[in-house]
């Protein structure tokens, strides 16, 4: 374990990529938002890392070219990326099959990896962005929510049977609310308002939107894959990809909530955070109670298979931030309020662990601490498809899970069973991390 806590030496992981930012220091928690530059690493097959073709995957954090000099926030869609400039402009790059880049459906494919400003938001001062596989969203400084892209699953939230928005369109159902965060799954979405109200829309099967969905029993991994399939076998990734494809096809007849509606289970509580995984949801109340609902094939709800509606998750610590992905879930929690260093934090992980994306051994369907980071003060955590990324108060980045396509930023394709420091970032301060399916974005202090 000691070796994993020390900086790694990798001959091919050049620090020259970040030399221009060397010397930035200090903590990243608290204070006013800061601006910086954007770096990316991981799978570049859709251009989401921002390197033009024929550039390959990025195995270490690599600067994203041609962005404004000061960026205030980033968001990683499944296969595309978004950035907000300090002036409130939105920039995009990556996959555009559904118009999620905000530059029209007919833009030349060979330009998708180029960073370009999203059209149609010129009169909106944007403060945050979010994205799914097929839809992008921006939150204005006035709390307005804008969406664009194409989704037959109702993710736009623009009204019945509206499946396409070629240009950013305001979600009028939320016009009287100050939206502070929006999170997207594959077919559903949730929006959190400044006063703690929670709205949901899109596909609602299996309780991912609570009572608006169908409270049905989700199949276990053994039932779906067959009892003879070893979930740690080399064929597991291919089998799971087939499962996701089958799920998408089966969603043609799923019930759709076409406009944002209050989540009933949260209507009498103040919500502090929310995260939508592929087809499950995590919700935190201000008192630290965590609800989970939706698919539970891999224990990502933090309980045994059964009813998939929104229910409380038993936890030993008080969570304050969550991140949900395809089959695993992560939560930042307070582990102690004593000591000279103030409140201590930790990461709870549970769910799918085929590539060690939980960062720990032990029972997978029970939220359990990632012990390797117990000495770090953590400020955010983000779950990718089969990898995980964490940011500390010192501005350091730790990654673990699948190393395929360089998605760990460690210079190789090796899987890591426990968190490893991304040492090519030594001497710089990272302000934000965002993990997508197979790539990652970093906002690095200027």
UniProtKB/TrEMBL annotation:
- UniProt domain RCC1-like: residue ranges: 38-441
Give a Pfam family name.
WD40_RLD
- Span-the-membrane segments of this chain are none
Source organism, top-level taxon: Eukaryota
Q: Is the Iron-sulfur keyword given for this protein? A: no
UniProt RCC repeat ranges: 36-87, 88-142, 143-195, 196-287, 288-335, 345-394, 395-446
Q: Which InterPro entries match?
A: RCC1-like_dom, RCC1/BLIP-II, Reg_chr_condens, Ub_ligase/GEF_domain
Q: Does the keyword Repeat apply?
A: yes
Going by the UniProt record, its keywords in alphabetical order are: Repeat
Entries under PANTHER family matching the protein: REGULATOR OF CHROMOSOME CONDENSATION (PTHR22870), REGULATOR OF CHROMOSOME CONDENSATION (CELL CYCLE REGULATORY PROTEIN)-RELATED (PTHR22870:SF365)
Q: What is this protein called?
A: RCC1-like domain-containing protein
The species is Urochloa decumbens
């Amino acid at each position: 374990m000691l070796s994993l806590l020390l900086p790694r030496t990798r001959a091919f992981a050049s620090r020259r990529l970040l030399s221009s930012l060397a010397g930035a220091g200090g903590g990243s928690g608290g204070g006013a938002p800061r601006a910086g530059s954007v770096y990316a690493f991981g799978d570049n097959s859709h251009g989401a890392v921002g390197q033009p073709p024929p550039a390959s995957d990025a195995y270490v954090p690599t600067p994203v070219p041609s962005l404004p000099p000061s960026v205030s926030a980033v968001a990683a869609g499944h296969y595309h990326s978004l950035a907000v400039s300090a002036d409130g402009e939105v920039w995009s790059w990556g996959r555009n099959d559904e118009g999620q880049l905000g530059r029209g459906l007919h833009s030349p494919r060979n330009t998708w990896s180029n960073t370009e400003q999203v059209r149609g938001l010129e009169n909106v001062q944007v403060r945050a962005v979010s994205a799914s596989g097929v839809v992008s969203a921006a939150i204005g400084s006035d709390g307005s929510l804008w969406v664009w892209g194409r989704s037959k699953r109702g993710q736009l939230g623009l009204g019945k049977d509206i499946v396409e928005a070629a240009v950013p369109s305001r979600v009028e159902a939320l016009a009287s609310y100050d939206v502070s965060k929006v999170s997207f799954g594959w077919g559903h979405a949730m929006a959190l308002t400044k006063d703690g109200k929670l709205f949901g829309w899109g596909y609602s099967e299996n309780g991912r939107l609570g009572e608006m969905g169908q409270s049905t029993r989700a199949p276990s991994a053994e039932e779906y894959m067959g009892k003879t399939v070893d979930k740690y076998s080399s064929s597991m990734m291919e089998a799971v990809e087939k499962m996701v494809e089958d799920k998408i096809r089966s969603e043609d007849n799923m019930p759709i909530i076409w406009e944002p509606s209050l989540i009933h289970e949260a209507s009498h509580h103040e919500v502090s955070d929310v995260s939508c995984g592929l087809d499950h949801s995590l919700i935190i109340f201000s008192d630290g109670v965590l609800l989970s609902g939706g698919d539970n094939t891999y224990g990502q709800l933090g309980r045994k298979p059964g009813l998939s509606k929104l229910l409380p998750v038993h936890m030993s610590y008080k969570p304050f931030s969550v991140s949900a992905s395809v089959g695993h879930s992560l939560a930042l929690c307070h582990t102690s309020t004593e000591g000279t260093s103030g409140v201590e934090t930790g990461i709870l992980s549970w769910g799918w662990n085929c590539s060690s994306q939980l960062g720990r051994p032990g029972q997978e369907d029970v939220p359990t601490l990632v012990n390797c980071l117990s000495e770090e003060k953590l400020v955010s955590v983000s779950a990718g498809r089969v990898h995980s990324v964490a940011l500390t108060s010192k501005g350091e980045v730790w990654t673990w899970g699948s190393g395929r396509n360089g998605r760990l930023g460690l210079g190789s394709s090796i899987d890591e069973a426990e968190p490893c420091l991304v040492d090519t970032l030594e001497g710089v301060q990272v302000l934000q991390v965002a993990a997508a399916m197979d790539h990652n974005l970093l906002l690095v202090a200027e």
